[in-house]
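fyi for ur records
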Amino acid sequence: MELVFSPGTPPARAGPLSRFLPPVDIGSTTRALEAKDGEGEYLLDPFGSSPTFLLEAARHRGVIVAANNPVTRFVLRRTVLPFRLADMQSALAHLSAAAMDGTRLEPFMLDLYRSECSRCGRPVAVDTFVWERELDVPVLKVYACTECGHSGEEPTTPGDRERALAYPRRGLPYARALEQAAPADDPDRQNVEAALSVYPGRALYGLITLVNKLGQLGLEQALREAAQALFLSAFESVNSLWGYPEGRTRPRQLVASPRFREDNLWRSLERALDEWALPDPQLDWIEWPAPALPGPGQMAVFPGPVRELAETLPFGGRPLVATVLPRPNQAYWTLSALWASWLWGREAAAPIKVVLRRRRYDWVWHAGALKNALQALAPALPDSTVLLGLMPEAEPGFVSAALAGLDSAGCRLTGRSLRMTDGQAQFAWVVERRPPPAAGSHPMRRAIVTSAVSFLRAYGEPATFATLHAVVWSDLAGARQPAAWWDHESGPPLQVINDVLEGLLAEPETFVRLEGKADPESGLYWLYDPRGAAGPLSDRVEVAVLAEVQRAEEVEALDLEARLCRMFPGAHTPERRLVAACLSSYASEEEPGHWRLRPEDALPARQSDLSDVRRQVEGLGGQLGYEVRSTGFIQWVKPDGEAQFVFQVQDTAAIGEALAAGVTPARIVVLPGGRAALIAEKERRDPRWRAWLAAGGRVVKFRHIRRLAAESTLQPANFDSRLGIDPPEHADPQLPLL
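which gave:
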């Protein structure tokens, strides 16, 4: 069941429509597919949701993909067959020079966003207006004056607001935009009207002007498609879904942000040149069906849904089914239907027009959609076909929908790797023909408790609800239990299993929720009785990182992460932030991505340092009148034989043993100052650390012990207060004046 996670690196640059497409890390697809070498004659992607995934996959083996969304298909095609920069520049130049109301189109479009510089009074084209949704007016403007150089963010003037409101949301441009997507007798017309509401009146006027002008120019096909690509980026940029200053970066509902940006439409076209200036991946684009299966370096694209693709697949062929599992996004699919109708006509949008009728995509619906899609594909697949699913936006609802949907479609889960705190998961299934067990044939409550308790004992530290939820669900899916509850009278499996899980996690005789609020998904969960639990995962990861950087002269960060994922597979996959904290605690970055062990953490130097600090602690105890007992720990014992302090001197931040021992007698962990940031990271991720420190546990640095040993006024009465003047989270505190 424990699958090795395939890590990658975030893309260095954002591609077209990246805010709507899955955020797949570069390299993760290649690693995942290399682990499946020998599986399948070709790769089959039933959903085609990620161009990034498909590009990497096609370099590894031949790909057949169902791409039903015409917008995603266009992005995919122009990622495989990128535009020449000269064609995009030429398309923009033709638009710029097009006649418009006695002037050229470019100055006409820039004039839509006209304002005045507050310093010199000259006209300026504002880059961004910021609107208050409730006031329905722009309240801020962001611009740079080319005359005097003044730039910044300023309140709008009455003239700015008047010009913005001169473009009503339901004027002639609105009517044209509506007509191109849904004529008067179209039953979806009301739904299109709701979708159009996310565009400010000025933006809608501008984009419809652009679309109409493109139709009049009669450009050759290459330039026309280049202009359409630029338009897509502009369509994405100028709607009201983007909050200011940050807000939602990946909107999923067609709801304007409370404070949203209205970007300058022409400037959006200019920025889009960089978005679409993509490197040539040297791949072949094939329209499927085709006479032969694609080979490595070839991508065969079917312009329809997976249920229709299934009818075209070669009988008896064995694919590896691999995909980025799609996440429901009402905003993107609804806008895709609009954009496709504006750019390519209503016929192009027809295959996905049904999305206009759905206003909400809940997880039960999504589970059913995945179930139906895979059931339609299953008859074309041989028994025991392997299915690999990447989930770059993992959260509890998405995980349960995917596991319930695929289980109910006849796919048995065989592997999982979870990085839920990073919002990432990867799963493996096999297609099997046998039906699932009957609902109730397995004791669900006992299975859930066993799953959660076993995981926490092996994990060794508290876990988030999202992680426990994914562990429990994947254990149940491995036993085909979600499918058993699909048609049960108790309700769909998402409701049944989630209700039972939340109820069991609330039972105080088994689980303890740390720092949680009313929402069961808040806080962290730990065991009421942790006896027998393993040491904290964070400690084990730290020790593994140290061993790796000591073993090699230089380590590459991503290779190190991949090795750690092999050491800690499945539900124990360490999060990226923890790996980075461990690495930076022992090594320095010589050049981007390449790390070398710091000289002071080399084994001979650190052993010498440890011995020296132990001598300092022992000598300090004798100096203060205590009996010093030194075995593994160093104890300062009072005359009555009771230990006053116990010192745990070590060179790592792996102090799970100190957490388990408590603070009676006073436990003092002594470690190098270079571990301070790692200690802070462990304290952030584990509330038990904070409780231990609050109860009197201490962490001090080597250098502070040396300072105390050299202090002539130190006495038993003031030792405790002097000990606390250099807490581990401070970078370089100074001793207070005596």
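Residues 179 and 186 are 9 Å apart (CA to CA). thats all i got for now
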